[in-house]
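dumping the sequnces here before i forget
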Amino acid sequence: MPGRPAPPRVLTVAGSDSGGGAGIQADLKTMLALGTHGMSVITAVTAQNSLGVQGAWPLPATAVVAQFRAVVDDIGAQAVKTGMLASAELVETVADLLASVDVPVVVDPVGVSKHGDALLAHDALDAVRHLLLPVATVATPNLDEVTQLTGIAVADEEGLRAAAAAVLALGPRWALIKGGHLPGDAVDLLTDGSAEHWLRAPRLDNRHTHGTGCTLASAIAAGLATGSTVPEAVARAKEYVTGAIAAGFALGGGIGPVDHGH
Ligand code: PLP
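..and the predicted 3d for all of it:
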């Protein structure tokens, strides 16, 4: 049997969430739900559940390089997404690997989990600014990550413009500034410095939002792998994540995951 034609292939370079709500696990579910073949380069293993991150173990850089080469040199990827990179050494390693492939890259500059657990060493921020963001097609910081990376604190929707300009100055082609932590509607700004796309969704009354950021970035990567433009991929990803948050469910004793089966 020749097998059916392969779906678009998307690679996530991120951390494992043992609870299945965020990280690699959320990424692969999103990629499947959006009709793509998901593949993974695991950067760190976390012991994690609905209550938070109990432990995190970065993998050696050699293991990250070997996973990446195994996937890219045989199967190939039409888009790559990065999430938790844990350490300065891994940020540098991944930035180098990404510079060696000519595909769209979605960088979710993951810093701290919703529970306040550090997912990136503080001394890795410079490598994110100067090595990783310059190779990004789209960077997707939330407002805490904007502050960590640029020093800018956003207080209202208008402030998203200054945040986007500061993030774009670090080198990504597009910045998607996620304003979900502001009060009111969940408003994000996507811009490449000339076009501006405002994405607005009503605030949902559901605290089970674990994995939101991973899901959004993976959905964008899946769209780009499928041939969508950046604005199309981001608009579709926002719809997908809004549906996943609406269907998020309680699990364990804390914050449950967004749902990919809706
Ligand atoms: N765990 C891993 C491995 C992650 O990559 C992320 C986010 O990117 C998180 C946890 C945090 O998820 P959340 O802030 O949605 O709870």
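Residues 14-15, 17, 22-23, 46, 48, 83-84, 110, 113-114, 119, 210-214 surround pyridoxal-5'-phosphate (CB under 6 Å).
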